[in-house]
Amino acid sequence: MSAGEEYAVLRAAGVSLVLDLVGDVPQVLHWGADLGELGPEDIAALRESGVPARVANSPETPRVLTVLPVERDSWSGLPGLEGHRGGTATTPRPETVGVRVEPGDGDAGGTVRIALREPVADLALAADVELEATGVLRVRWSVTAGARTPGTYDLGHLVALMPVPARATEVLDFSGRWSRERAPQRLPLVDGAHVREVRRGKPGLDSPYLLVAGTPGFAHRTGEVWAAHVAWSGDQRWIAQRLPEGAGAHAAVIGGGDLPRPGEVRLGPGETYVAPDVLFTWSDTGLDGLADRFHRRARTRRPRRAPQPLVLNTWEAVYFDHDLGRLGEIVDRAARVGVERIVLDDGWFRGRRDDTAGLGDWQIEADVWPDGLEPFVARVREAGMQFGLWFEPEMVNLDSDLARLHPEWLLAPSAGVGASFRNQYVLDVARPDAYAYLVESISKLVERYAIDYIKWDHNRELHEAVVRGGADGDRPGVRRQTLALYALLDELRERHPGLEIESCASGGGRVDLGILERTDRVWTSDCNDPVERQQIQRWSELLVPPELLGSHVGAARAHTTNRVTDLSFRLLTTAFAAPGIEWDLGACTDEELERLASWAAFVTSRRPLLHGGVRVHADLADDQALLHGTVSDDGAHALFAWVRLASSAGPQAARVPFPGLDRGRDYVVRVPDAFGPVAVHGQEPGWLARARGADGFRVPGAVLAGAGLTLPVLQPASGLALELTAR
């Protein structure tokens, strides 16, 4: 890190951020590959070499792109700040009043704190621009209304934008639906704005998730890429924008922020709005390079206190049929298999015999559990396992005591509650009395049963989410609901320091780095079909490390797709995430239980690798084949999966290089027997028989990484595990 009165340079993990502090507002001179140590003369050269040429019909003063671009700078794109005072003060003219540069830990990275005043609307703005040790850039903005100006400042938006160069010509982001989250979509970055707006009250099953701009044809292992993530669990705006005149010395911008509803952020004198963090990441080693930065960030920012336990969730085993005898048998069989945590899902609370009633009444259903949950919890504890419980605190059924007693607690218009999703409505968590009810109700159960883990669900979108019956009428409440959720999670964790929480939202509908600041894993998708799951997990792990992505082995016939798959493929798919089981073990054969036990012993013994290594993905021409793996930091140990999703017209036998290995080492390749038989089409290549033997198959790392192996032709919906150990 270096700094002077006119510049600041932050460096970490092969990344440089260079800020020019001369002018009304700081500018980004460079964000990307590390430029090395830069002194005043180097900064002057970087500044002068980036002044764009003036062309016809352009401003006399060359355009610049500041960290808060506005029209004053001849910027015609999305402004960094937008708002008004009663229809006036709409042309912000920010100017710097102070900059403080703080070194990072071990002098890696650092933070530039920028203070601005905006005299037109009488505002004070502040930005924290932090280059973290992992090379991830965190930007957080805030705005405070002047204390001397009467009335309110109505904020439209306050977004974080970063520049990308002209060589970034393609954009990748994501869409999806229930049971098919994180579906990638690519398009050219052309003049105009690629804007994604989320108006669901949560990121949604079609979340943009990660916005990536990159060089032509960028892939998992190749290309230079710049990415942005909005770390917020409510409404969002994402943007990649290119203008014909460019963006100062750059070609385009990427970024985003939250998306306040009209009238949602009205700042009185002295009041402050804090925008969510937007995280920016650069890599010159493709998407795997981006993912590695995010994974290292997650592992250092909130390290786990203990390994991620092997979970059994009861939902797909029993649904609402809560019978102690049946559940007790599942507990006994789970212990035999090697499960470490049992989660009792929906159906345990008052009035909850199906999904039409009871939601919000967080008391034990005495008709189903006459002795409370004590007998079941005791059985779980006696078997040596942890206990978890399902909640959906932000929602309510109208057929519930809570809704009948407190209709004013609904987050819905006074004129009517609107359409239901899954027979449920939204509870106004930001109401102090509703908030207190949830804290106390959940805490009583956590204390009574020493609950280790909560599966926290959120099964509907927030439509017409307004606070009912205020003195001035209904007011928008999405943002305050999101902040109240964060506060609720924070308070529960403070009260119960050992409690772990999973974020679930109809599967993967609330997966973002805002919620993961307060939870311990996410439920990746309601789909346990391994064919679908391979792709869902592939793209989910671009942002979230695998140990935080819940993935469970289900029954042979998937309840979401009706597809039947082999147990070996289901076990293999789950191994590369946070593994668990969502299957009626009481209906399993002894052979199936033995195979589950063998798999459980394998994945728990390999947790240091699977939950601490580097995820890698081969770039293959055949989109129905996948080769992905996890390699230890020292390159000495790896586990790969060779997967066939469906048949294709590609070559049936060809060498496939293995990414991420140390070319200077020799490796022994083995086929672990924990996953069971693999469905192979025709005859296996000869080396595979040796890999199945006790001594394995020795291959130089240069051959594995440079030339590759001829891999077997698998039947559709099949996968082969290969474990590699350096000699």
TrEMBL record:
Record key words, sorted: Glycosidase, Hydrolase
Domain Glycosyl hydrolase family 36 C-terminal: 630-713
Entry keyword annotation includes Hydrolase: yes
GO biological process: one example: carbohydrate catabolic process
Residue ranges of domain Glycosyl hydrolase family 36 N-terminal in the record: 26-267
SUPFAM superfamilies per the UniProt record, alphabetical: (Trans)glycosidases
Catalytic activity field: Hydrolysis of terminal, non-reducing alpha-D-galactose residues in alpha-D-galactosides, including galactose oligosaccharides, galactomannans and galactolipids
UniProt organism field: Promicromonospora thailandica
High-level lineage: Bacteria, Bacillati, Actinomycetota, Actinomycetes, Micrococcales
Recorded GO MF terms: alpha-galactosidase activity
Coiled coil (residue ranges): none
Name under which the protein is recorded: alpha-galactosidase
EC number: 3.2.1.22
Superkingdom in the source lineage: Bacteria
Signal peptide range in chain numbering: none
PANTHER family per UniProt: ALPHA-GALACTOSIDASE C-RELATED, GLYCOSIDASE FAMILY 31
Region entry Disordered, spans: 76-97
